[in-house]
Amino acid sequence: MTDKRLPVDAFDCAPGLRLAAHERVSAVHQENLNRRLDRLEELIERLERRLWLAVYGVVAVVLAQAIQPLLVAAQ
């Protein structure tokens, strides 16, 4: 017996097309989520810098008020 197989051409079927479309949509969603996450990280870093600046400002005011009576007493 000889093995006579018909050549099978690749064809697109509806489930395969739907899966490919779903993968493309998922990739787009993933890219958008990554962009949003990067933007949020940048915003959080800027907020953190502002908070540290506020903390340093408050510490400076407290130290200035603590040192002021010492300077007045030294005169």
Query: How would you characterize the largest beta sheet?
Result: none
CA gyration radius, whole angstroms? 33 Å
Q: End-to-end distance, in Å?
A: 117 Å
Round the mean pLDDT to the nearest integer and report it.
Answer: 88
Indicate the low-confidence ranges by residue numbers. Answer: none
SS summary, helix count = 1
Shape descriptor reads: rod-shaped
Any overview of this molecule?
By secondary structure, the protein is an all-alpha fold. It is built from one helix and no strands. It starts with 13 loop residues before the first helix and ends with a helix. The mean pLDDT is about 90.
List its salient traits.
75 residues, 1 helix, mainly alpha, rod-shaped
Topology:
Layout: H1 14-74
Nutshell version of this structure?
This protein has one helix at residues 14-74. By secondary structure, the protein is an all-alpha fold.
